[in-house]
Write a structure and sequence with these properties.
By secondary structure, this protein is mainly alpha-helical. Helix content is 65%, strand content 0%. It is built from 4 helices and no strands.
């Protein structure tokens, strides 16, 4: 597994990282790895996001098969209050 060294980390950033690691009961190194895993998009994650976006766009572009017009929510609430 490769090793990553980071130099010249600003003091305020290092302090925040140390505090976050302490809160999560992790070493600073483990906390950095967790942050990288959460925030760095891998090629596999990028493909997954692209598939999701394509499917969402496909579904959005489909026309609704329902010919029924739906009443606005405000109208339904008003009717319910009058009962």
């Amino acid at each position: 597994m490769p090793t990553l060294y980071v130099e010249n980390v600003p003091e305020h950033l290092y302090d925040a990282l140390r505090q976050r690691a302490k809160q999560n009961r992790k070493s600073i190194s483990s906390e950095v790895l967790s942050l990288l895993e959460e925030n760095v998009v891998t090629p596999a994650e990028q493909r997954s996001r692209q598939r999701f976006l394509s499917e969402a766009q496909r579904l959005r572009s489909q026309r609704s098969s329902s010919k029924r017009k739906f009443e606005p929510a405000e109208e339904l609430q008003r009717e319910d209050r009058l009962r």
